Amino acid sequence: MVVNAVVARKGRRFALLMAAHDSEYVLKKYGGYLNVFVAAFGDASAGETWDLYRAVDGELPGEGDLDRYDGFVISGSPNDAYADDEWILRLCELVRDVHARRKRVLGVCFGHQVICRALGGRVARASSGWDIGIREVAMAGVQLPGQCRFLDALRELPPSANITKIHQDEVWEVLASSDKTGVEMFRVGEHMLGIQGHPEYTNDILLNLVNRLLGAGSITLSFAEAVKRQLENTGPDREFCLKLCKSFLKADERSI
């Protein structure tokens, strides 16, 4: 069931599969995570339509609706991608279905992990614990643009980029890596892309999440203060990260 949509007159259609509930903060400031993702990855001038499915509540597009979409985005989540909750298993099944149809799927954090699990990879709790803040990730190899034609719009990749991180699980078994997380990014052909970080997050959303984790006792005060100090001096390369994601989602299929 479609529970919300940013409606356009014409153009491409995308589905956001939300694996988390809207926080009080995001609802109050942004009107919900749908608006955060559309602001990050959408293009109002292109007449796009973005539909929201609350996957965490068991809402997913039906099999007959999948071909209506040009692409899917799977969000982050406080849940474990390797858990056997019914909605997670159903989401994995959907990933396998759209993979068979060669539909574009962008997975962010939890979404990155779910794509990996659904296609036979291994996801587990990170041995190094929480990774929160701005992390420099190394891009994998100068030959990458020739192998990933959806990156042609970027012309060339930087050797590294900063991205916003907040997770304690990770893909184990690559497009990019960091000293904290072994698999920061991966692709499957030209139609599936997983990113461990949160290119859609603004610093205020990250800070709100840090405060919520601190309040819940999930992280220590010293850990939270270290993240806040880092954010005062370092920011993500958000423009590059968003362009990477949008280039993937909007690539012209005729050139692939």
From TrEMBL:
Keywords, comma-separated and alphabetical: Cytoplasm, Hydrolase
GO cellular component, one term: cytosol
Descriptive protein name: Glutamine amidotransferase domain-containing protein
PROSITE patterns assigned to the protein according to its UniProt record, in alphabetical order: GATASE_TYPE_1
Protein family (similarity comment): Belongs to the peptidase C26 family.
Pfam family for this entry, one: GATase
Main location: cytoplasm
CDD domains linked: GATase1_1 (cd01741)
GO biological process, one term: glucosinolate metabolic process
Pathway: Secondary metabolite biosynthesis
InterPro entries: ChyE-like (IPR044992), Class_I_gatase-like (IPR029062), GATASE (IPR017926)
Domain Glutamine amidotransferase: start-end pairs: 66-202
Organism from which the protein derives: Eragrostis curvula
GO molecular function: peptidase activity
Cross-referenced PANTHER family: GAMMA-GLUTAMYL PEPTIDASE 2-RELATED (PTHR42695:SF9), GLUTAMINE AMIDOTRANSFERASE YLR126C-RELATED (PTHR42695)
Subcellular location: Cytoplasm, Cytosol
